[in-house]
């Protein structure tokens, strides 16, 4: 709502729809225009510049069907717009690149996590995809890089851990209680090696035996995999929240590498989408070759 005169602040003001407004909806209100009274207006807010490296991020398409697109979201790129980033998100960028303004992320993948993200492309069948995630009908597999845990072997093990998310606390706590939720995760070790974690520049892991783990969350809880690995004494490399909260401390070595769900609404057949090189050569994605 404006009164007096239209500000000359570099922004564009348009008349909004109102029964008593002397202007047609959408009329441009020029800077300095004297208004006869309180006038409903629309204004385009100022948005800060967004990081060029995110706007130019490579987002490979691994699956494209009539109802969905599955992409490999890079680390650091949000899945959907938030308060700080609107264009530099996987959803926004793929809408532009594929020229499909109706694309919507069917689920959430943390900004720090790299990997498979499902985008619904058909508004009519969007709910079909989203409901599978809401009902926990989707199978997900992740890989993580962390210090070697001798007790974890090549066979699947099931880990149950009570977790509690406290408001305004960046860390999820491992604690028993009525408010806690029991989380369940399958974990196994894919490969291990002695020496540096990933590259010589990561001197914090120099000399530390390192392993690639595969994890499958059977429940869905905030930071579930990160909390589990920290609880096991091997926080995921690059984690800026566990064991200590250090925002922006590094690139989280966690990647969603396989997902299984029904991608076509007209059939109940489930399809498995994978990042093949991760499953075939677990060291390849971390910039390190198996010795």
From TrEMBL:
One of its GO terms (molecular function) is pseudouridine synthase activity. Residues 69-231 form the Pseudouridine synthase RsuA/RluA-like domain. It catalyses: a uridine in RNA = a pseudouridine in RNA. The lineage of its organism: Bacteria, Bacillati, Actinomycetota, Actinomycetes, Mycobacteriales. This is RNA pseudouridylate synthase. It comes from the Bacteria. GO terms for biological process: enzyme-directed rRNA pseudouridine synthesis. Pfam families: PseudoU_synth_2. It comes from Corynebacterium jeikeium (strain K411).
């Amino acid at each position: 709502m404006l009164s007096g005169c239209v500000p000359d602040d570099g922004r564009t003001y348009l008349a909004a729809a109102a029964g008593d407004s002397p202007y047609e909806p959408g009329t441009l209100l020029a800077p300095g225009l004297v208004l006869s009274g309180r006038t409903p207006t629309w204004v385009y807010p100022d948005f800060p510049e967004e990081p060029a490296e995110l706007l130019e991020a490579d987002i490979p398409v691994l699956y494209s069907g009539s109802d969905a697109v599955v992409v490999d979201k890079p680390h650091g790129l949000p899945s959907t717009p938030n308060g700080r980033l609107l264009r530099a998100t996987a959803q926004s960028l793929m809408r532009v690149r594929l020229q499909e303004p109706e694309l919507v992320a069917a689920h959430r993948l943390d900004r720090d996590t790299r990997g498979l993200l499902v985008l619904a492309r058909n508004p009519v069948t969007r709910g079909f995809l989203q409901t599978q995630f809401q009902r926990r009908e989707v199978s997900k597999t992740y890989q993580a890089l962390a210090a070697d845990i001798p007790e974890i072997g090549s066979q699947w093990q099931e880990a149950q851990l009570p977790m509690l998310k406290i408001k305004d606390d960046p860390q999820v706590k491992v604690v028993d209680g009525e408010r806690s939720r029991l989380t369940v995760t399958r974990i196994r070790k894919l490969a291990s090696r002695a020496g540096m974690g990933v590259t010589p520049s990561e001197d914090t892991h120099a000399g530390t035996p390192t392993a690639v783990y595969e994890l499958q969350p059977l429940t869905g809880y905030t930071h579930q995999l990160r909390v589990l690995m920290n609880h096991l004494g091997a926080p995921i490399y690059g984690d800026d929240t566990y064991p200590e909260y250090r925002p922006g401390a590094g690139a989280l070595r966690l990647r969603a590498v396989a997902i299984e769900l029904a991608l076509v609404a007209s059939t109940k057949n489930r399809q498995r989408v994978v990042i093949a090189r991760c499953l075939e050569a677990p060291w390849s994605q971390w910039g390190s070759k198996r010795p």
